[in-house]
Amino acid sequence: MALIVQKYGGTSVGNPERIKNVAKRVARFRAQGHQVVVVVSAMSGETNKLIALAKEISANPDPRELDQVCATGEQVTIGLLSMALKEIGVPARSYTGGQVKVLTDNTFTKARILSIDESNMRRDLDAGMIVVVAGFQGVDADGNVTTLGRGGSDTSGVALAAALKADECQIYTDVDGVYTTDPRVVPEARKLDTVTFEEMLEMASLGSKVLQIRSVEFAGKYKVKLRVLSSFQDEGEGTLITVEEDKNMEQPIISGIAFNRDEAKLTMLGVPDKPGIAYQILGAIAEANIDVDMIIQNVGHDGTTDFSFTVNRGDFAKAQGILEKVKAELGARQVTGDNKICKVSAVGVGMRSHPGVASKMFKALADEGINIQMISTSEIKISVVLDEKYLELAVRVLHRTFGLDQSI
Ligand code: ASP
Ligand code: MG
Q1: What is the pLDDT of residues 42-56, one digit of tens each?
Q2: At 248, is the secondary structure helix, strand, or coil?
Q3: Which of 6, 38, 41, 174 gets mutated to test ligand 1 (max ligand atoms within 8 A of its CB)?
């Protein structure tokens, strides 16, 4: 007998028929003798609707009240799923985050989980029940409803699995695992049987939407056995996210090609080349709560230098406004920007032991006449910033270059 936490995403509970199917799947696991805690998202599109509704009332909704509104989506699906389970003779009980309780800090709209009380869940599991928990939500020390950020149900699932020391956390979604890249861009993309936490973390932060990045951090930290599977298929092992690289197995050098269109680049030209410049520019950006990704500073000539960095596309206009002000203070020459860029990354732990990955990547792009605007690397990834119009081509070419369309 195992204790399994299963998380079902919005499309998996998108209508009554699908909710009934989830109930059947859960019932099958129970019939095999397993204890199951189910975490659900809101029905697909529901959270977007709730946010849109709030914005019709207030352009800038109060975060506490926004969480109050947004958390209702999951309250609907836990009730419906528990009913569906009872309809097929399976005892079940639903819990909101507050009822569990999932204690969080009070950073509304992106709260962090502090602790989880497992006593209610244990009692019900020991009584042979299925426990159904609302994803995405918790409660702060004062009893306020909080939410964990978009996609937060993944994190709820992993956190519950960690708290319960579950044997496995299964994330059911509309794809049957983690792919070498997005199959909508490269039809030859392959499902990976395993991927390491580090790789998954890079892929999630570089634009892969399969798992919320915090859920992967959590799983890595608490050593939760995490698996991504399809809720629309009965067969298949999905993708297992592993803690360790399998030393006995021949590692592919690159495991996946990730990409993100949501990027913009800003450059300050002719900045006086003296100490404190990076701080003055990026300090002002950080104060406005804008996340900076890649940073490049040229070697100065003639006492001045050029300074470039990337931000989320949504922050582009705001960042530009800030740079104009800083430019005046610094006596820099000009601020330029481009919000039609993308980032394409090759990710793989095999890079550590194989030199030459970067040059192989740059050659493949050069052969296609694709200009690289910026480069950044870590131990297990190489990212390039490109003109947005090259995104699909670059992803396809790199996928082929690193042999990802062939099974190994
Ligand atoms: N319903 C929330 C969202 O759409 C949480 C989740 O689905 O994970 O972001
Ligand atoms: Mg999701």
Answers
A1: 999 999 999 999 999
A2: coil
A3: 41
